[in-house]
Amino acid sequence: IAACMAQLQRERRARQEAEDLLPRKSVDLRETEKRLALATRGRLEALTRIGQELGEVQDLDLLSNRIVTEARRLTQAEAGAVFLHEVRRLRCTAVQNERIDPVGRELLSRLGPHDVLEVDLQSLAGAAALTGKTLNVPDAYRLPESAGFRFDRRYDEATGYVTRAVLNVALRGRDAQVIGVLRLMGPAAA
């Protein structure tokens, strides 16, 4: 009986400690929720502002660069590109990469914009454009055979950059038709 009483006392103390801790944790949780709400509201406001600004831009190359810049900023991606959909092909209109040296950046600026890809299921960007789906690839160099598409390594080979994680998002126009693909790249997912 003494052992049972001692166990009961320990359980009561543990329960009282938990009850005493609950109000403090509730306050911490409410403060965390407020911080997250503010951060989310700030991001939504930034996206709205960006959308308004982008709606005013008439130069497609300038618009593409702004989309890549803002998407990279919001996602913390180290590189990105925009491919605009033309008849059966995608034309690269903007490409950015903060991880390559100035010589590589110059080479990338000459290689990237106006490069053309076929819209087919063989390439990541082509598959995103054709299906309208977002394709999230943790490691572009280790695509499974079942993926059906491949990653074009030309830019990596030319600049020395090693692409790992790749996110391809189909960009849609007012009529919901795919008008291009936004590609964001970064290090391998942990």
Structure notes:
The protein is an alpha+beta fold. The protein is 50% helix and 21% strand. The chain has five helices and six strands. The protein has helices spanning 2-56, 60-75, 102-111, 124-131, 154-159; strands at residues 79-86, 89-97, 116-118, 135-137, 165-172, 178-186. Strands 3-2-1-6-5-4 form a six-stranded antiparallel sheet. Strand 5 (165-172) and strand 6 form a beta hairpin. The longest helix is centred in the N-terminal third of the chain and has 55 residues, at 2-56. The termini are far apart. The mean pLDDT is 81.
Question: Care to give the gist of this entry?
Answer:
The protein is an alpha+beta fold and 190 residues long. 50% of the residues lie in helices and 21% in strands. The chain has helices at residues 2-56, 60-75, 102-111, 124-131, 154-159, and strands spanning 79-86, 89-97, 116-118, 135-137, 165-172, 178-186.
Q: Give the tally of β-strands.
A: 6
Q: What general outline do the C-alpha atoms trace?
A: elongated
Give the amount of beta strand, in percent: 15-25%
Structural class: alpha+beta
Main β-sheet: number of strands, strand sense, barrel status?
6 strands, antiparallel
Strand order of the largest sheet: 3-2-1-6-5-4
N- to C-terminal separation? 53 Å
* Count of DSSP-assigned helices: 5
| Averaged pLDDT | 81
N-to-C SSE series?
Answer: HHEEHEHEHEE
Rg is 25 Å
Helix content: 40-55%
| Poorly predicted runs | none
